[in-house]
Design goal:
By secondary structure, the protein is an alpha/beta fold. The chain has 6 helices and 7 strands.
């Protein structure tokens, strides 16, 4: 059903971390889905209803046709067996080739829990004798995107040139007005994200870039698209 499933701890994490790559994948004909694990609430200016509307607007900007929310508890996200089964069920029914999850080192406990949960659910999704929905499925790869609450720079496995889709990423982030109000202190989160994208782009000779990491070796069939 899907080529790519992006696992996001909260609505807006997928856009902040890899919104440009999501839009680029969509433009290249890949079917991308986003699964938000929680509704992200409570926050000072948000409500579940507001966050839902914002996520829907951002999804439309990126051109994503599939987005769901797993309904796990914000601020108390844990890689429990119940949550693992729920996520594994989504993986089995959407059958993505690739999973994307937050980088495994982060100051935000929800982000760390989301990554542990994704890795465990990827394994569970392939089990034959289980009560999970759908047929067994094992995504080929799991990649990790940067959406940090930790000011650390990790050497990425690769950087995607998002010069052509940076505007769509910025527009999708702007949909989350409750999280990034105009009155916020400068530099704002969107400004910091844009600066980081420019820095990563400069590392590969592009105007904008998004970094990704891998715990597993990366296989190549050729060198046609290396920059």
């Amino acid at each position: 059903m899907l080529d790519v499933l992006v696992i996001a701890p909260h609505p807006d994490d997928a856009e902040l971390g890899m919104g440009g790559t999501i839009a680029l994948m969509q433009s290249r004909g890949l079917e991308v889905g986003i699964l938000d694990l929680t509704d992200g609430e409570p926050t000072p200016l948000g409500t579940p209803e507001i966050r839902g509307r914002e996520a829907a607007a951002a999804t439309a900007v990126l051109g994503v046709g599939w987005r769901e929310n797993l309904g796990l508890p914000n601020r108390r996200l844990r890689a429990t067996l119940t949550a693992r089964g729920a996520l594994a069920g989504v993986i089995r029914t959407t059958r993505p080739r690739w999973l994307f999850a937050p980088h495994w080192v982060d100051a935000h406990p929800d982000h760390v829990a989301a990554t542990r949960l994704t890795e465990a659910a990827r394994f569970w999704a392939k089990l034959l004798k289980s009560d999970l929905p759908g047929e067994p499925w094992h995504p080929r790869r799991i990649w990790y995107y940067g959406c940090f609450h930790l000011r650390a720079v990790h050497r990425p496995a690769f950087v995607v040139d998002i010069t052509s889709t940076a505007d769509l990423k910025a527009r999708s982030i702007a949909c989350y007005g409750s999280q990034f109000p105009d009155s916020a202190a400068r530099p704002t989160v969107p400004e910091r994200v844009a600066a980081a994208d420019a820095w990563w782009g400069g590392r590969i000779g592009a105007l904008r870039g998004e970094p990704f990491w891998s715990r597993e070796p990366i296989g190549l069939c050729g060198f046609d698209h290396l920059m």
